[in-house]
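Batch job 17 of 40 flagged for manual review because the log was empty.
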Amino acid sequence: MAPDPGLVRLRVSLRAVLGIALAVALAELLGLSLVASITAGLAALLALFTVIDPTIRRQAVTTALLPAAGFPVLALATLLHGAPTLRDAAWLLVIFAGVYARRWGPRGHALGIFAFMQFFVTQFLHAVPAQLPELYAATGVALAAAAAVRFALWPIERRVPPPAVLAALPGTGFARATTRQAVQVTVASGAALFIGQFLSEERWYWAVGTVWWIFVNTASRGETLVRGFRRVLGTVTGIIGGFLVAVPLAGAPVATALLVAVCVFGIFYSAAVSYSWMILAVTVMASLLYGLLGVLDGPLLLLRVAETGAGAVCAGLAVTLVLPVRTHTTNDTWIQRALLCVRSATSAAARRLAGDEAADPTPHAAELEALLGRVRLSVAPLVHPLTPFKGRKERAGRVLVLLDEAAREVRGLVSVAADPDASHDARLAAACWRVEAAVEALISRQEAAADPDGHARTEAEAHPGAPALAHARGLARVLTELDAPLRTPPGAWLLRS
């Protein structure tokens, strides 16, 4: 498992277990049914998992808005329970609106997911209109419990710097990635709905759920295809876990509750680092919940694999054939934004060292870390172990290594600039100019200017008391080395597929 600096993932995961346990306990104390208690747990999970606004205040507002997005959908799904055609059409409209809302950033993303999952949970639990009042009560109690744990009992975000918020990719109409994705997800969901109902009249919704979650946090064809592969891998391994764990338990309440808590921890702890592990935990948890409902058996778990496979195929076809967003387009955009951020951080650091107190490179460094995370996600299809393009894989890996090295140099430069005793070196301006020139050459796709690498190293060694200068020269060298792997022989960007 990936490192966990500051144990942030550990604390977030433990908080999620606490919040969801509190929500379920309150539902049970109120005398609500098992279906309502499961609804409460899932609502708390979604509130703690999907609300990722950069500030605590925005997180609180988004959490408060979740009922506005979820309650109407919950009512619609239950009222159309006995009208399959209208139910299917309504869900496709909810799906389109939920994906389209991603254009409004983290809040739209969270509200869209919550609305979709209210429809999904209704199908999962086979809820009917008579249960609507207690489902509302369970969801309301769960959201209050999640908010109390997150903002009062264990406010982790108050001790963690807010993450940088990245602007969405540019575009209008069908040139906007979120609009294209809304169409893709709706088309894929319609196909998955049809195939899923052919496979099972009762559990067809798993195919639609697979489509939805494959498209979450993806922006290109390659990312979506890789996500689909990992979804199937996580589901298959999770089903094996279901056979080994959930089937023998046969719904035993105490043991099932404890294992569900373990699965919740696994979902939150692995979400940021491994999609396959997260889906494994989700699949085992779903198997345990089916055990509680008294419907779990071997054929049901095998059907889950078939439905997941159908959804993954539908998602793959839609992202390839319906308004596709090519991987190289996304790679190009995110890498350029990262390079521009390197230039901005260097320029701000140089001005700060020159005595400009208003210049602050820290926000640029934070933004660069977020951008590099997005670059890794975008380039992931090219470095996947199963990619057939070995040359591209090697060069894409080289790009990631060099960008990480650039980020280290930026962090070092920012650290020096934050030292009030640091002095400005006259040679720093020339080194920063080389950084800007190297970035401009990469972005404009011109031939990179020759960098006197050997001279720079010799001079840096001769002046060990100028760390800012060493970091700036290191950046210039890294950017010059990036020129080759970012291009194919004709001069076009390498990272395309």
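Reviewer: the log was empty due to a logging misconfiguration, but the result itself is present. The chain has a mean pLDDT of 87. Unflagging and moving on to job 18.
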